[in-house]
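quick q for whoever's on today - can somebody do inverse folding on this one?? i tried earlier but teh output was garbage lol. tokens:
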């Protein structure tokens, strides 16, 4: 009878310790999940760009979420490709990311970037009003994040651009072949709405 009481008592103590250990492990697991969730939420909803202003990025056809995450991390849009991959995977959007050219500001978060990549590259339009000169058009394009004012002015003044850019423009746009040899593009930029 005494042996039975000792065995039962030891079993009860062992069973109690086992329950306490399981509760401690469960509590520790919940705390770790909570900390990880807070860290992931911070990565997803806080901008971490390594540049100022806006920046353009090209997402080519056939890239998966991991390669897109690596690309946008490498280009300085985000800090962690894994936070991006986790975010789009949890939303079920990992296979819905669309190729295209995107422009993001330094205030873009992983959530905003993912949302835009799922929606696809939106066509945007710019309107060049009548009477604007090259400097004004360049400033407007710079403000819209399309190109820098300096690059635009240099291309319009073809004599200041490199021969490779000149030959590229001349081969892509047949109407430019008839222009005088040292003339720029000033007369070829018309007031209109241009869609990209």
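ok took a stab at it. sequence:
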């Amino acid at each position: 009878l005494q042996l039975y009481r000792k065995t039962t008592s030891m079993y009860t103590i062992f069973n109690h310790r086992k329950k306490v250990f399981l509760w401690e492990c469960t509590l520790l697991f919940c705390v770790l999940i909570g900390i990880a969730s807070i860290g992931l939420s911070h990565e997803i909803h806080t901008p971490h760009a390594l540049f100022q202003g806006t920046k353009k990025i090209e997402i080519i056809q056939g890239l998966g979420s991991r390669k897109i995450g690596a690309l946008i991390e490498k280009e300085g849009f985000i800090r962690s490709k894994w936070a991006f991959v986790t975010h789009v995977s949890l939303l079920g959007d990992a296979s819905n990311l669309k190729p295209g050219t995107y422009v993001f500001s330094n205030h873009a978060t992983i959530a905003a970037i993912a949302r835009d990549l799922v929606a696809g590259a939106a066509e945007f339009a710019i309107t060049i009003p009548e009477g604007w000169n090259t400097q004004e058009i360049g400033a407007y394009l710079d403000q819209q994040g399309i190109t820098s004012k300096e690059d635009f002015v240099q291309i319009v003044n073809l004599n200041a651009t490199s021969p490779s850019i000149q030959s590229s423009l001349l081969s892509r746009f047949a109407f430019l072949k008839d222009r005088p040899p040292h003339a720029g593009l000033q007369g070829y930029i018309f007031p209109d709405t241009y869609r990209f």
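fwiw Residues 142 and 148 are 5 Å apart (CA to CA). also The mean pLDDT is 84. so keep that in mind when u check it
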